[in-house]
Amino acid sequence: MSTALAGKILWVLGVVAWYVVRYPFERRARRVQVVTSQRTLSDTVGLAAALLGMAALPAIHVATGFPSFADYSANPWIVALGAIILVTALWTFRRSHKELGRNWSISLEIRDQHKLVSGGPYALVRHPMYTSFLLLALGQAFLLSNWVIGLAGLLGFAVLFFLRVDEEERMMLEAFGPQYRDYMERTKRIIPYVY
């Protein structure tokens, strides 16, 4: 098996694992009433960009090899690093969902009996779900040896993050006021101790 093929297989397994983690939370979320929804056009655009860059385009690449002009020789050490990053991303993704529990939502929403979560990965960063997406995009860049597809994941993440994070923090400030402001002062956004 070639290193490039191994990277593609690992990426596919990562996508399957991502969905296995998310699915039960998605099902449970449908049963919890939404009190406030801040879904906007920019929220929808951000989600679409992430889906395109981190799922659709890499899936096309894995299935067809397109765009082959941007391929480069896969290095076993780079693919191994991508696998480690992918596992770390999935662990962070799972822990984030687990800590949020019934508060989780795919969109900018406050749910019935919503509580501010500040344990687990939320003790280090305010948005560990975005941390996991950043790690997933980095893992994709290392696993799929194609410049366009690697950059597509990082670009998709960046669009989602920068269109959403300020709106999300405004919503949390409206919902939790000084409690969230204190939490903001204790934590970084997505990279512990850095940003």
TrEMBL record:
Domain of life: Bacteria
Keywords: Membrane, Methyltransferase, Transferase, Transmembrane, Transmembrane helix
GO cellular component, one term: membrane
Predominant location: membrane
Membrane topology: Multi-pass membrane protein
Transmembrane segments: 6-25, 45-64, 76-93, 133-163
Record carries keyword Oxidoreductase: no
GO BP annotations, alphabetical order: methylation
Places the protein is found: Membrane
KW Lyase (keyword) present: no
InterPro entries named among the record's database cross-references: ICMT_MeTrfase, Isoprenylcys_mtase
MF terms (GO), sorted A to Z: protein C-terminal S-isoprenylcysteine carboxyl O-methyltransferase activity
PANTHER family: PROTEIN-S ISOPRENYLCYSTEINE O-METHYLTRANSFERASE (PTHR12714), PROTEIN-S-ISOPRENYLCYSTEINE O-METHYLTRANSFERASE (PTHR12714:SF9)
Protein name: Methyltransferase
